[in-house]
Design a protein that fits this description.
Chain A has 774 residues and is an alpha+beta fold. Chain A contains 21 helices and 20 strands. A six-stranded mixed barrel of chain A has the order 3-4-9-6-8-7. A six-stranded mixed barrel of chain A has the order 13-14-18-15-17-16. In chain A, strands 2-10-1-11 form a four-stranded antiparallel β-sheet. Helix content of chain B is 28%, strand content 27%. Chain B has six helices and ten strands. Chain B starts with 6 loop residues before the first strand and ends in a 12-residue tail after the last strand. In chain B, helix 3 packs parallel to helix 5 and helix 5 runs parallel beside helix 6. Chain B has a six-stranded mixed β-sheet, sandwiched between helices. In chain B, strands 2-1-4-5 form a four-stranded antiparallel β-sheet, covered by helices on one side. Chain B is an alpha/beta fold and 238 residues long. Chain B is globular and about 50 Å long. Classes of the chains: A alpha+beta (774), B alpha/beta (238). Chains A and B meet through helix 12, helix 18 and helix 21 of A and helix 2 and helix 3 of B.
Amino acid sequence: MRIWPQGLAIALVVAAGVATLILAVGAYRSLDETRRAYYERHRFADIFASVSRAPRTILTDISSIDGVLSVEPRIVDHAILDIDDTVTPVTSVVISLPDHHPQRLNILYLRSGRLPEAGNDHEAVVNEAFANAHRLVIGSAFSAVLNGRKRQLRVVGVALSPEYVYAIGPGDLMPDDRRFAVVWMSESALAAAYDLEGAFNSLLVKLINGTRAEAVVDRIDRLTARYGGTGATLRKDQTSDAFLDAELKQLNAMARIIPPIFLLVSAFLINMTLSRLIALEREQIGLLKALGYGRLRIAVHYLELVLAIAAVGIVIGYALGTWFGLSLTRLYAEFFHFPFLIFERSIDLYLLAGGLSAAAASVGGLRSVWKAASLAPAVAMQPPAPARYKPMRIERLGMLQGLSQLTMMSLRHMVRMPARAAMTGLGLSLGAALLIVSLFSVDSVEHMIDVNFFLAQRQDATLNFATARDIRVTDDVRRLPGVLRVEPFRSVLVRLRNGQRDRKIAIQGLPADRDLARIIDRSLAPVLLSGGLVIDERVAEVLALAPGDLVEVEPLEGRRRTRELRLAAIIRSDFGLSAYMPMRELNQLMAEGRWISGTHISYDRTLENQLFEAVKSTPAIASIALHRFALAKFRETIARNIDIMVGIYLSLAVIVAFGVAYNAARIQLSEQARELASLRVLGFTRGEVSHVLFLELAVLTLLSQPLGWLLGYGFGWLVISGFSSDLYRTPMVIHAATYARASLVVFAAVAVAALIVRLRINRLDLMRVLKTRD
Amino acid sequence: MPDNTEIVFHARGLTKVYGTGAVAVQALRDVDLDLYKGEFVVLLGPSGSGKSTLLNILGGLDRPTSGECRFRDHVLTGASEEALTRYRREHVGFVFQFYNLIPALTARENVALVTEISEHPLSPAEALALVGLDDRLDHFPAQLSGGEQQRVAVARAIAKQPEVLLCDEPTGALDSKTGVRVLEALVAANQTLGTTTVVITHNAAIKDIADRVLYFLDGRISEIHVTERKLSPAEITW
C-alpha cells in the first residue's frame, strides 16, 4: 500500500483518541469502582458529627432516627507525635476503636498485626502510609502527647481506613505521609486519657439506602447541640472523599475534552488523504466501473481502507490506553491509599472507543467514498481538468508585489482549497492547544504557590491549640526557642444563614496588625479587615449574599448565641471556602473574652530543632503546620503529577501536530510532484523547491498559532472549571512563555514532518514526471 | 547549418544501461556526437531508440553509464547534482510534450519564474511577444489552449536566453496548425538568439526545418542527414 506512512500517521491519531478515552474513562471507572467497593466493604459512614462531649445515652435517640442503619460513637482528637527518626513534629489524628465489639463503621483494613487490646493504653495501630514513611513495623515505638500527657506507644498493627484514602494533615495543602499520621487506640484507653468515660466526641452514622440525609443531619444537629455539636456533615464534605471526588471529576473532564479532539482530527486526516488517493486513482476507478463493478463495490473498497486504518489505530489505542490506564490507576492508588484496586476493564468502554473512532473515520471518508462511487466511468478515465487558479483577493490590492513566483505558487495553492487549508490550520491549532492545556498547570500552580506561600501565608509555622486559650499565651509562644514573631488568630466554626440557604464554615478572626498571615485577593492586593464580616465569593454565591446584606451567624461552639452581622465585603481568592472578621469583633460575638485558637509564627531557622523539641513537649499544642515542608511537599507532588501529565499530553500533541503536518505535506507533494519536478528541471535547487512545499505549511502553522492559543485557553478553562471544588480552585494563569513553548513544540513537530517529506523531494523522478500527464 | 563550427556539446562513447542482469535495458550504445552553436537539430526514431535518453543526458537530467559528455568546458558526466542543477539553471531551456507549466501561475508569471533566476533574461512580456502571446499575459494555464500553453512553455524556455534549447516532443500533444505555431516560435528563438536547439519528435515532417537530422535506432545514431534546403515551419504540415 503506497500510502502506508500516511495511513500510519492517521492510525496514530486514531490511537491517541482511543488511548485517551480508555485511559481517562478506564482510570475513572477503576477509581470509582475501587472507591465504591472499599466504602461498601468497609462500611464507610454517611454522616460525620463532632461534639465536645456527649453521653452515650443519646445514642439510643440517634439510632431511632428514621433512616439510620447504624451508629458508632468514637473519641477523636489531634495529637503531636515524636518519632525517633525525625526531629520534626508529626501531627496526628487519634481515633478510638470499640473495645467490646468489632467496628461497625469505617472498618479498618488491617495490613499487618492486630488491633489493640481493650484498655491497653500503650498499643496503637497506625496508618500504612505513615508506617511506610517512617519504616515503622510491628513492635516499633513512638511517643504521643495525649491530652497533655506524653505516652510511649507501641505499634501492634498497620492499617488503612476508608476515612483516610486521602490523608491530609490539618492546615496542609498536600498529603505528607511523613508528617501526618492516623493512630487508632483502644476506646477505654482513650476515654481514660481524655476524661470521656461513658461519653464520646465523634459520631459516625450509616443510613439505610434511599434515606434523605439532610433530614437526619437536622435531627442529629438538634440532638447534639447541647453537647457542643458542631453540625453533622455529609460524606461528600468529608475531606478525604471530597479530594477523591475532585480528582475523579478531573478525570471525567479530561475524558470529555481530549478524545473528541483526536476523533475530529482523525476524521479530517482521513478525509484529506482519501480524497487525494481517489483523485490519483480515478482512472482505475473508471476502468473498474467500465468493467462492470458497481458503485457499492467501489464504495466498500474504499471504506475497507478507511476501516483498516482505523482498525490499526484502534488496536494500538487499546494497547496504549490499557497500559497507560493501568499505570495511571496505580499512580492514583499510591497517591490515594486504597488497600486494593479494582481495574475496570469493561468491554463496553473498548467497544465505545473503537466504535467512535471507526465512526469518526468513516464520516471523514464518506464524502470521498461517495465521490468515487458516483464517478461516471467515462469521466473517470479522463484525467481531471487542469487545476483552476485565480488571483488571490489580496493581490488585487497590490499587497503581494515583489514576492517571488515560487512564493506566489505556494500561496495560491494554499488559497485554492480554503477549507482544507483551514482544517490543516485547525489541526495544528489543536496541537498547540493540547500543549497549552498540559503546560499551563505549571503556571497556575506556580501562581498559586506565589500567592499562597509568599504573599498570603508568610508564616513559617502555624500552631493550633487543643482548645481556645486566653490571648496571653502568645507571650508563652514568643518565649519558645527561635520564635521571632507571633500572630494570634481565633477560628470559630459557625453556620452562616441567609433565608433558606446555610453553610457551615470557620470564621477566621485576625488581629488588626498582621504581617504573617495576610489575606490576598485575586488582584494580589492584601485585604484589610476594617470591621464586619468578609467572605469569599464562593461562599457569597452559595448563600446568595451581596455586600451590605445582613447574614445570620450561629456559632457552633461556646454559648452559641445567634446574631446578625452585616456583610462588609466579598473577596475573590483561590483557596477553600473562607470567612474573616477582625479578631476583636469575633471575640465580642462569642462573648468569651480575648481567646485565641492558635498562632502563626516566624522563627529563626538555626534554632528549628530546639523549637520542634519544645513544641513536641508542649501539651497545649494540638498540631503544627510547617509551611516550608508543606511547600516542598506541594512542589514534589505537583511536579511528579505534572511530569507524567505533561509527558502524556506532549506525546499526544506531537502526534496530532505531526500527523496533520505530515499528511498535509505528503498530499501537497503528491498534488504538486509534477510541478516541483518541473521546477527542478528548470534549474531550481532542492532547497528552492522545498520552499514551495513548506512555505504553505509554514504559513498555515504560523496562522494557526493564535487560534491554538485561544483554544488552549478555552480548554484550560474547561479543565479548571471541571476541577474547581470547595477545597480549592486552580487559578487560570498562562504565561506568555507557555504559549511560546507550545508553539515551539508544534513548529518542531511540523519541521520533523517536513524533513521526512523533504527526503522524498530529493528522490523526485524528474524524467518520469516529464513524460507523463498529470 | 550556420557558418560556425564552435562545438557546444561534445559526446564520446555515451552508453546508458537501465537496470541490471536479465532485465538490463541498453538505452544508448556508444554514441559519439558533436553539436554546434546555433544549430537546429532534430532527433528522429521509434520509441525506445535512445532519443530521450540522449536529450536527458545533454540536459543534465541523467548521467550516462559510461562515456564522456561535455557542454563547452563543463564536463557533465560525473558532475554533482548541485553542478547539474546550476548547469540547467544557467544554460539550458527545456520544452516538454505536456508543457509542464505551473498551474498556479499566469503566463507572465510562468516566464518570470525563470527570468527571476537568470542573469540576462528577456522580460516576460518580450518573451511572450516572441511566441505571439502578448495578449494572454495574465491568463492562467487552465484558461489557455494546448498550443498556447506550449508557446508559454517555449517563451519560458527562451526567456533566459539559454545557450541550448532542448525540446522533447514539443508538438506531440498538438494538432498540425497549433504545432506549426510552436515550431515557428522555436525557430524564431533559434534565429534571433542563436540558441542551439535540439528537438525530439516522432513526426518526420518536422525534419525539414532542421539543419541536421539524427536518426536513432536501437540506442545508436543510425544515420545523420544534413538538410540541403531548410523549410520554414509554415511550409510543412502533418
